[in-house]
Automatic annotation (TrEMBL), chain A:
Cross-referenced SUPFAM superfamilies: MetI-like (SSF161098)
Name under which the protein is recorded: ABC transporter permease
Species per Swiss-Prot/TrEMBL record: Roseococcus pinisoli
Family: Belongs to the binding-protein-dependent transport system permease family.
CDD domains (alphabetical): TM_PBP2
From TrEMBL, chain B:
Pfam families: ABC_tran, oligo_HPY
TM segment ranges: none
Keyword Nucleotide-binding: yes
Domain of life: Bacteria
Localization terms from the record: Cell inner membrane
Record key words, sorted: ATP-binding, Nucleotide-binding, Transport
Cited CDD domains: ABC_NikE_OppD_transporters
Membrane topology of this protein: Peripheral membrane protein
NCBIfam families, A to Z: oligo_HPY
Name of the featured protein: ATP-binding cassette domain-containing protein
Record flagged with keyword Amino-acid biosynthesis: no
Family: Belongs to the ABC transporter superfamily.
Gene3D superfamilies linked: P-loop containing nucleotide triphosphate hydrolases
UniProtKB/TrEMBL annotation, chain C:
Pfam families to which the protein is assigned, alphabetical: BPD_transp_1
PANTHER family: OLIGOPEPTIDE TRANSPORT SYSTEM PERMEASE PROTEIN APPC, PEPTIDE ABC TRANSPORTER PERMEASE PROTEIN
Membrane topology: Multi-pass membrane protein
InterPro entries: BP-dependent_transpt_permease, MetI-like, MetI-like_sf
ABC transmembrane type-1 domain: residues covered: 91-280
Keywords: Cell membrane, Membrane, Transmembrane, Transmembrane helix, Transport
SUPFAM superfamilies: MetI-like (SSF161098)
Glycoprotein listed as a keyword: no
Family matches, as PROSITE patterns: ABC_TM1 (PS50928)
Organism: Roseococcus pinisoli
Places the protein is found: Cell membrane
Gene3D superfamilies with a match to the protein in the record: MetI-like (1.10.3720.10)
Keyword Acyltransferase: no
Official protein name in the record: ABC transporter permease
């Protein structure tokens, strides 16, 4: 188990290192950082001085290590727009994003998993077809279209709910529904196919053939086994709690991390973009790590510890 | 007369890992195999699955490089796999596979696949050449327009044979060429192989677990066990009076109505190259094993009638082991 | 490293087979896509106006049937530009981008997958590390970062979208090529003396093509959605060019007064992605039961 944990931790660290390297490479490929930061109209002497001050004339590998060290120290640079630390700018937006994505995650789980299980258990029934049709719709209707349609109906036509902003909990309803419904569709489709695959296995047929009640077969054999692949996609959803609302926050003018990212990209505010990139990568990697550990709990075969065969 | 191909002390190792971070253990698929292939003659290679027969075949063809030892074709070492010289040499060394359907490209017609080696080696590859090859292996010309899945198993193996013969190789390695075929077809393909060899005069390495098939085609037979040759000699000698206890067990397993004596049932675990016993690899399953067998691996040494045997006991006085024949 | 569970050779259609009747859904999907393709190809011919042409006297005119007239079938936008004309050109841009990006992704992924299968060792480890890397980050975030660093141009945008899903092709190509190299037709052709070009170009690639094409039909709608999402955010196709997503983005400002500006491109996006996915599912069932 320790060895398993160590190898996962190593891979997690490797992925973060690759993201940092990616940011460094992209930053260097995108042009002369001095010119970008000083602006196109900066006098040439100022640019030269800047290059010297920031060590931009040093060999690339030295710059790379300095860059890496700075990031490890939590120094992620300053926003070009207001000169504040990028990390503070991002951090103060996180609660707003989580206020949307966490309720949305509950909707996804509460709707998606039961719908998928029920559809699989009643394969080819009316329920199955309805769930699948909704799931396909959930995939093909992009979130900005769904969000705008909801605004058109509930805010413009009916006037029940506000169309954007963050003044009260009522402002969160439409964005949360937009996020939750789309994700629930994906999850339902995935759960259904995981469940169908498990139900087709011989151990299910054996358990059922030897007289175990069907309800018990589903509870004790099918659900735990179908949970294994489903955990992966749920882990991905948890990992994107911070990044998952880029489009929806923009539709509803919700001041979260996603909105900040879009504005920063439009303004080429590189420090902020890089900070969000690393934050997203870190949450993603951590949730993958948790998923891997959960696998160990759910699937005894993956536990490397010698605890005797079953 | 110099041999067509000589292999000396071939060793092939694989590294097997247990678990993601487990220690890698060495698996010796081949542990010092030497053999000689004469022009126009057939050497049969028998043994159970996992004993290294197929690995031997691939090393002899030069498809893989041995970890120890050397293969020399007409006195020159094999070029490294994938090199230009190696590719050119493929015209002279060819192979017939166990699974003809897998060895053929399902999307291409038989004709175009038979023509492929000719195209690769820059030889005339017209309809006439293809037709001649197809008829030579007993297919009709119109089989050339068909796709692999439209032929029967025997016909597919004939097609594979036609493709292998296209460049008139000097050596043909047949790796279990009949074991995937229906029993009724096996004899036809065997006869075809012998007929083709007689006509074309190529050398053959015939690999099989089927002792009778090997006997039918071979001029010499080598019996393999866990990566080594344990007995080698003329087929009649080896089959009539096997000297190595393992060869005896193999022979006794053949159904043979008039034969006296019983079948020798091998006890113990089937051989596992990852866990090779000390001394003679066969000793845990050998009814005759003595203390020496556990400690010292027997060398392949000439026996009285000119065959080679690797057994401490076989080289001891003869009467002793004849009695032990029926265990 | 997880092996791709796709080592089974793809099922190849026999030349003669009994033709099953096309399901209704597939017919609808095919006709819609044909319509879209024709629209994209004939945009210059069928568009009633240039997509930048202004008709200032008919600003925010409603579509026909909602109080509009024959001059602007789908109405006009805030500058009096014809929505139908803009829609037609947007379809062309979006399809072009999606086609280009899908092809780029398939080409990059397949090449890297085949390289990994051919060289094994370090090359393979490097490719697999890249695969893990791109699978571990949401692509939208990656795409946004690259756009922030490099700024926006149409060429870069298409290339960037092409990176979407490359790792899927790489996985599939590597898995199938390793399988073929290990024991099948590819090993047989190799020992005939064929060059790697011949082995990969004439044997492996044609054999795995059907699997790759199915993957492309699955990636295509995702790319349409990505493109329209980024363009909606104002970070994709830039004016004066127009795409389905950017039309929705601009139309959003007039959601209350002129919802048709937004609804027309939005429905095209939804119907098109739906049709390509439906067609992809149908193709997958027919061509390649090993894909899931």
């Amino acid at each position: 188990m320790l060895r398993f944990l160590a190898s996962r931790l190593f891979r997690a660290a490797l992925t973060i290192a690759m993201v940092v390297t990616f940011a460094f490479i992209v930053l260097r490929l995108s042009g002369d950082p001095a010119q970008i930061i000083m602006g196109a109209d900066a006098p040439p002497e100022a640019v030269v001085a800047f290059r010297a001050a920031w060590g931009l004339d040093d060999p690339l590998w030295q710059q790379y290590f300095r860059y890496f060290a700075a990031i490890l120290n939590g120094d992620l640079g300053r926003s070009m727009r207001d000169g504040r630390d990028a990390i503070d700018l991002v951090a103060e937006r996180i609660p707003a994003t989580l206020a949307l994505t966490i309720p949305a995650l509950f909707i996804k789980l509460a709707l998606g998993i039961p719908a998928g299980v029920v559809a699989a258990l009643h394969r080819n029934s009316f329920i199955d077809r309805a769930v699948m049709a909704l799931a396909v719709a959930g995939f093909t209707v992009p979130s900005f279209v769904l969000g705008l349609l909801l605004v058109l109906v509930f805010a413009v036509q009916l006037g029940w709910l506000p169309s954007g902003g963050q003044e009260s909990w009522r402002h969160a309803i439409l964005p949360v529904i937009t996020l939750g419904v789309g994700g629930a569709a994906v999850l339902a489709r995935f759960t259904r196919s995981a469940m169908l695959e498990v139900l087709g296995q011989s151990y299910i047929r054996t358990a059922s053939a030897k007289g175990v009640p069907w309800g018990a077969v589903v509870r004790n054999h099918a659900l735990p086994n179908a949970a294994i692949p489903t955990v992966t996609i749920v882990g991905f959803m948890v990992g994107s709690l911070i990044a998952g609302a880029v489009v929806v926050e923009s539709v509803f003018s919700w001041p979260g991390v996603g909105r900040l990212l879009v504005v920063a990209v439009a303004n080429r505010d590189l420090a902020v973009v890089q900070c969000i990139l690393l934050l997203v990568a870190a949450t993603m990697v951590v949730s993958n790590l948790v998923v891997d550990l959960l696998y160990g709990v759910l699937d005894p075969r993956l536990r490397a510890a010698p605890q005797g065969a079953h | 007369m110099s041999a067509l191909l000589e292999a000396r002390d071939l060793v092939r190792r694989y590294w097997m890992r247990r678990g993601a971070f487990g220690r890698a253990t060495e698996v010796r698929a081949l542990d010092g195999v030497s053999l000689t292939l004469e022009r126009g003659r057939t050497l049969g290679l028998v043994g159970e699955s996992g004993c290294g027969k197929s690995t031997t075949g691939r090393l002899v063809l030069g498809l893989e490089t041995p970890d120890g030892g050397q293969v020399a074709f007409e006195g020159t070492p094999m070029p490294p796999p994938g090199s230009r010289a190696w590719r050119a040499q493929r015209a002279r060394l060819q192979m017939v596979f166990q699974d003809p359907l897998g060895a053929l490209d399902r999307r291409l017609t038989i004709g175009s696949q038979v023509a492929e080696p000719l195209l690769i080696h820059g030889r005339p590859a017209g309809a006439a050449e293809v037709a001649a090859l197809l008829t030579e292996v007993g297919l009709r010309e119109d089989h050339g327009q068909r796709y692999p899945h439209q032929l029967s198993g025997g016909q597919r193996q004939r097609a594979v044979l036609a493709r292998a013969l296209a460049t008139s190789p000097d050596l043909l390695v047949c790796d279990e060429p009949i074991s995937a075929l229906d029993v009724s077809i096996q004899a036809q393909v065997m006869n075809l192989l012998m007929e083709l060899q007689a006509r074309r005069g190529m050398a053959m390495l015939f690999i099989s677990h089927d002792l009778r098939a090997v006997r039918q085609v071979s001029d010499r037979v080598a019996v393999m066990y866990l990566g080594r040759i344990v007995e080698e000699g003329a087929p009649d000698d080896v089959l009539r009076e096997p000297a190595h206890p393992y060869a005896r067990a193999l022979v006794s397993a053949l159904p043979h109505p008039g034969r006296r004596g019983q079948r020798i049932l091998l006890s113990g675990d089937p051989p596992n190259p990852a866990d090779r016993p000390t001394g003679c690899a066969f000793h845990p399953r050998c009814a005759d094993a003595v203390a020496r067998c556990r400690l010292e691996a027997p060398a392949l040494r000439p026996h009285a009638d000119g065959r080679l045997v690797a057994c401490h006991l076989a080289h001891a006085p003869a009467p002793q082991f004849v009695e032990m024949g029926a265990a | 490293m997880p092996e791709a569970p796709l080592l089974a050779p793809p099922v190849v259609l026999a030349p003669k087979r009994t033709r099953r009747r096309l399901p209704l859904l597939a017919i609808f999907a095919l006709s819609w896509l044909a319509l879209m393709l024709a629209t994209a190809l004939l945009a210059d011919v069928i568009a009633p106006y240039a997509y930048t042409a202004l008709d200032l006297r008919a600003r925010l005119a409603p579509p026909i049937g909602f109080g509009g007239d024959l001059r602007h079938l789908l109405g006009t936008d805030e500058l009096g530009r014809d929505v139908l004309a803009r829609l037609i050109y947007s379809i062309r841009t979006s399809l072009l981008i999606a086609f280009g990006a899908t092809l780029i992704g398939a080409a990059i992924g397949t090449s890297l997958g085949l390289l990994a299968a051919h060289f094994r060792g370090l090359v393979e480890q490097a490719v697999l590390a890249l695969v893990d890397f791109s699978a571990s980050l949401p692509f939208l975030i990656l795409a946004l970062s690259v756009l922030a660093f490099f700024g926006n141009s149409l060429g870069l945008f298409v290339a960037l979208l092409g990176l979407h899903a490359w790792e899927r092709y790489a996985r599939i190509a590597r898995g199938l090529a390793i399988g073929a190299n290990a024991q099948g037709y590819a090993a047989a052709v190799r020992q005939l003396g064929a060059t790697p070009w011949r082995i990969y170009g004439q044997h492996i690639l044609p054999n795995i093509a059907s699997t790759l094409i199915v993957s492309m039909t699955l990636a295509f709608p995702e790319i349409i959605l990505l493109e329209s999402g980024l363009s909606f955010l104002g970070l994709g196709v830039q004016p004066p060019e127009t795409s389905l997503g950017s039309m929705v983005g601009y139309g959003r400002e007039y959601l209350t007064r002129a919802p048709w500006i937004l609804l027309a491109p939005a429905s095209v996006i939804v119907i098109t992605t739906f049709c390509v996915s439906a067609l992809g599912d149908w193709l997958r069932d027919r061509l390649d039961p090993t894909l899931n």
